[in-house]
């Protein structure tokens, strides 16, 4: 595998926090940017995706992939949906896992599991691998208000170099739709990952009054 190909691999995890549209948009943008995406979906994420977006995914990875490819109308070859206990997936080992991982949206439950290295399913294991390999881990946490426990878990991970990005879109780009708010978050996340994007005008360039 060439280093260029290696660079364009990423792990994306969806958990059961509110904000499924963020995760879906991120997947769409990463695939459009020609990234190989390893997608991990928790059981609760499936419930939230159906509730918030009306998209029902089967528990099986292959069927879920088929539904997502049809929904996004994208290239199937770049997407790998991983099973919850697929311990032979590349994301389960530091010898093969992508160096970048985003959990978007990230529930308080998954935040706690990651902060404590639980590794009880492939999603938690993948995050633990990125931590131990000193890769880039982004958690797009969604809860309100935050308890002291949530804040402590976020601080703990932040001190380890994890980027905590609350799902908190700004309004200074004068959004006209929910899609605009979703794109605001997707743009900030893609910027942190170093993925080129033109979803939202940049501050200071297009917003001078
Ligand atoms: C529609 C819906 C919205 C939810 N929103 C949140 C949320 O914003 N933040 C959160 O931490 N949990 C939220 N939950 C609860 C989580 O889904 C639940 O704690 C679950 O166990 C998380 O598991 P996971 O981290 O494995 O996905 C929500 C659940 C549902 C069904």
Automatic annotation (TrEMBL):
Residues involved in dimethylallyl phosphate binding: 172, 188
Annotated positions binding FMN: 16-18, 42, 107-110, 142
Domain (Flavoprotein) ranges: 8-192
Chemical reaction(s) catalysed: dimethylallyl phosphate + FMNH2 = prenylated FMNH2 + phosphate
InterPro entries with a match to the protein in the record: Flavin_trans-like (IPR036551), Flavoprotein (IPR003382), UbiX-like (IPR004507)
Keywords noted in UniProt: Flavoprotein, FMN, Prenyltransferase, Transferase
The enzyme's E.C. designation: 2.5.1.129
Molecular-function annotations in GO: carboxy-lyase activity; flavin prenyltransferase activity
Family classification: Belongs to the UbiX/PAD1 family.
HAMAP family the UniProt entry points to: ubiX_pad
Known role: Flavin prenyltransferase that catalyzes the synthesis of the prenylated FMN cofactor (prenyl-FMN) for 4-hydroxy-3-polyprenylbenzoic acid decarboxylase UbiD. The prenyltransferase is metal-independent and links a dimethylallyl moiety from dimethylallyl monophosphate (DMAP) to the flavin N5 and C6 atoms of FMN.
PANTHER family: FLAVIN PRENYLTRANSFERASE, FLAVIN PRENYLTRANSFERASE PAD1, MITOCHONDRIAL
Protein name: Flavin prenyltransferase UbiX
Gene assigned in the entry: ubiX
């Amino acid at each position: 595998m060439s280093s260029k190909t290696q660079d364009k691999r990423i792990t994306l995890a969806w958990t059961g926090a509110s904000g499924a549209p963020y995760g879906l948009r991120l997947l769409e943008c990463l695939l459009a940017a020609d990234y190989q995406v390893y997608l991990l979906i928790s059981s609760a994420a499936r419930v939230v995706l159906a509730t918030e977006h009306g998209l029902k995914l089967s528990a099986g990875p292959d069927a879920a992939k088929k539904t997502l490819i049809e929904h996004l109308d994208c290239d199937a070859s770049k997407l790998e949906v991983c099973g919850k206990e697929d311990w032979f997936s590349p994301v389960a080992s530091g010898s093969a896992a992508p160096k970048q991982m985003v959990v978007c949206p990230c529930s308080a439950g998954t935040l706690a599991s990651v902060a404590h290295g639980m590794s009880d399913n492939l999603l938690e294991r993948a995050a633990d691998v990125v931590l131990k390999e000193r890769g880039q881990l982004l958690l797009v946490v969604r809860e309100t208000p935050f308890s002291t426990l949530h804040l402590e878990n976020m601080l703990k991970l932040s001190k380890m170099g994890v980027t905590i990005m609350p799902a908190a879109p700004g309004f200074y780009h004068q959004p006209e739709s929910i899609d605009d708010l979703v794109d605001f978050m997707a743009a900030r996340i893609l910027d942190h990952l170093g993925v080129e994007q033109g979803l939202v005008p940049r501050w200071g360039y297009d917003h001078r009054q």
